[in-house]
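Severity: low
Component: inverse-folding endpoint
Summary: output formatting inconsistent between runs
Steps to reproduce: submit the following structure tokens with default settings.
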């Protein structure tokens, strides 16, 4: 298992670095593919519980939401989501007894969780994308640097939580959803996020106070994203969301925390750094 995880990381990390730094249409295309794969995983998981998620409608709405985000139209993105919600409700009404309230609720949940979540990767990557900073490791756009803050902070949280929890974990954090998570591991993850984002913030020449604050926020939100996906999987009765990534599970397994932390970093930056 560990060998497959390492192999997937060795292949995936260079691709991730290239796609993020290249940006433009390649990054948007990659996010679209990830979104559609995640939506398929979501649909497949809930099918095990006889939940009929609106598959085709979800594909269309998720793609439209991403399109609005790529064009930088956050207001239109919100309008598209509202429209998607209405379409789900209309679909239930006109179908007679074919779809239930649960089908509608999970369809809306999926579009929110996946479509809106992944769209913020585009919004964050293209924030201040015309501005560039020069660091000791090269030149990159501000949008790319913001995205790396969210990514590295989230990955540090996961890594620190795992090792601290394995060594010192005693008290269960949320045993009903994820029995392996501990309070001690979560504290370690919080410290890891703060350290990682603070150090990366120095490289990107960001105010230390804001780097620490973002690390704190990411450290709190990341495990919530993880637990949210675990709750969905537990409801569906599956161990992993998919099998696409050897040793890691599916797309949602790899991006569960990212879908929570990236929006938080995006709004933090717009509220406090770009004012």
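Observed output (run 2 of 3):
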């Amino acid at each position: 298992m560990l060998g497959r995880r390492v192999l997937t990381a060795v292949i995936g990390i260079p691709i991730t670095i290239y796609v993020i730094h290249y940006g433009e249409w390649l990054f948007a295309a990659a996010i679209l593919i990830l979104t559609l794969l995640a939506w398929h995983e979501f649909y497949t998981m809930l099918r095990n519980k006889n939940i009929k998620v609106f598959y085709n409608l979800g594909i269309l709405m998720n793609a439209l939401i991403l399109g609005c985000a790529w064009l930088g139209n956050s207001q239109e993105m919100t309008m598209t989501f509202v429209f998607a919600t209405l379409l789900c409700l209309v679909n239930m009404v006109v179908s007679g007894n074919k779809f239930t309230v649960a089908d509608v609720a999970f369809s809306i949940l999926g579009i929110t969780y996946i479509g809106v979540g992944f769209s913020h990767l585009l919004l964050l990557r293209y924030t201040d994308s015309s501005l560039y900073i020069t660091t000791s490791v090269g030149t990159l756009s501000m949008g790319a640097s913001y995205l790396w803050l969210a990514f590295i902070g989230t990955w540090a949280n996961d890594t620190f939580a795992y090792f601290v929890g394995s060594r010192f974990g005693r008290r269960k954090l949320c045993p009903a959803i994820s029995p392996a998570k501990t309070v001690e591991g979560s504290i370690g993850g919080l410290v890891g996020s703060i350290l990682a984002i603070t150090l990366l913030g120095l490289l990107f020449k960001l105010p230390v106070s804001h780097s620490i604050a973002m690390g704190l926020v990411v450290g709190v939100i990341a495990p919530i994203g993880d637990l949210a996906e675990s709750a969905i999987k537990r409801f569906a009765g599956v161990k992993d969301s998919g099998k696409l990534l050897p040793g890691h599970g599916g797309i949602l397994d790899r991006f569960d925390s990212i879908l929570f932390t990236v929006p938080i970093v995006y709004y933090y930056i717009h509220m406090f750094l770009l004012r």
